[in-house]
Design brief:
The protein has helices spanning 2-14, 16-20, and strands at 26-28, 35-50, 59-61, 64-73, 78-88, 96-106, 114-120, 142-150, 154-163, 175-184, 189-198, 203-212, 224-236, 242-252, 258-266, 295-305, 310-320, 331-343, 348-358, 369-379. By secondary structure, it is mainly beta. It has an 18-stranded antiparallel barrel.
Length: 380
């Protein structure tokens, strides 16, 4: 099966000029239904870590992922979506198959809410609290229901779910629910949320908000200064309240050049903040060495379009602990991230990244190391 996935990826790449003409999902029609769409994705990624202290964690792996989706739109009020997924952590290893998404959308069931029931992805805000974690080889999905209301002034989601085992959690009894509210005001955009998580080891409630310049979340700032502030408090059984904050500002220069600075903090100690379902690749450095708990990450970045298809980025992170580990300083080290991403054609995306981490001579993940990654994704 692994060799088949690799062969499929190679064939897709070789035939990608034809794929480009398809321009997204394939749509067909049948009597009695409004439309039927088919979509898919094949992604192959190669990663290499080099560190004298990582032991079996270093070396090169080639994780692959294939997804195939089927969308049936019965009418303007009822639609269903089914997406299968198979993935392998490395070439020559076992391929696992899962149902990644399987849900029904019911519009205008009440005068206020539309409903979604089944297994689905969720992405909210910047992805620091709830994200489908797209760079992961499995992604994330949840089983449950979601009630949604959206108009020109605001949107509101209420949901209660169970994270899918091996697609977001290892704990089969975990539950996650709450509400997420978004509103665009004249001078800034506002998000507010209340999120409840229950696991075998911990029950916690997270309350927070995001305030940002208009268009920040959708990366629609074309000139001038943009800014964002996210703050959350977290209460857990038998522990002090924890907190997390993320503040960032960017400036758009001529030619699409973007420069920015930011500060992410999460409390540690007895009042530690534990991340929910955050994007593990986009924040706290692309090498994914640290989680957003007991952590301070001061960073700066630059993004520059190379042409109409390719972009370059670079970032510098300085990591430290909120509460220092006994017997050591709070400094964790620095990380430099460089990369390019873009489109080979309308159907094929590519990414190449390099991270250099310099620690403070601690063992484990804080050891000095280099991480190199490349990926190709074919959409059809």
């Amino acid at each position: 099966m692994t060799r088949f996935l690799c062969a499929l990826g190679l064939v897709a790449l070789l035939s990608s000029p034809n794929l480009a003409a398809q321009d997204g999902a394939v749509t067909v029609t049948f009597s009695g239904v409004q439309s039927v769409e088919f979509d898919g994705e094949f992604r192959m990624r190669a990663e290499s870590r080099d560190s004298g202290l990582l032991g079996p964690g270093e070396g090169t792996t080639v994780p692959t992922r294939f997804r195939a989706g089927f969308n049936l739109e019965v009418d303007d009020y009822v639609s269903t979506y089914l997406q299968f997924q198979s993935n392998s952590p490395d070439l020559g290893t076992q391929v696992d198959g899962q149902i990644h998404q399987a849900y029904t959308n019911l519009a205008q069931v009440t005068s206020f809410f539309d409903f979604q029931v089944g297994r689905f992805e969720m992405d909210y805000g910047a992805g620091r609290m709830v994200s489908s974690n797209k760079f992961s080889n499995t992604g994330r999905s949840w089983d449950g229901f979601r009630a949604s209301h959206k108009d020109e002034d605001y949107s509101l989601d209420l949901f209660w779910t169970r994270p899918v085992v091996d697609q977001g959690t290892k704990n089969g009894g975990e539950t996650f629910g709450g509400f997420y509210y978004e509103r665009s005001l004249d001078v800034f955009d506002l998000d507010a949320y209340a999120l409840k998580r229950a696991t075998d080891a911990r029950n916690d409630t997270t309350l927070g908000f995001i305030a940002s310049s208009p268009g920040w979340a959708d990366e629609e700032i074309d000139s001038g200064i943009g800014w964002s502030l996210e703050f959350a408090t977290q209460s857990a059984d038998g522990r002090e309240d924890g907190s997390a904050m993320a503040v960032a500002a960017n400036y758009m220069l001529g030619g699409g050049l973007e420069v920015g600075v930011g500060l992410d903090t999460a409390s540690g100690g007895n009042g530690d903040f534990q991340p929910l379902y955050n994007d593990e690749f986009y924040f706290q450095g692309t090498a994914e060495l640290f989680q957003w708990t007991n952590l301070t990450d001061a960073y700066a970045w630059v993004v520059k379009p190379m042409n109409d298809k390719w972009n370059f980025y670079g970032s510098l992170h300085s990591f430290s602990e909120d509460v220092a580990t006994p017997g050591s300083s709070d400094a964790l080290g620095t990380e430099i991230d460089l990369g390019i991403w873009g489109n080979l054609n309308e159907a094929t995306e590519a990414y190449l990244g390099l991270s250099q981490y310099s620690g403070d001579n601690r063992d484990g993940t804080a050891a000095d190391q280099v991480w190199l990654v490349g990926s190709i994704t074919v959409n059809f």
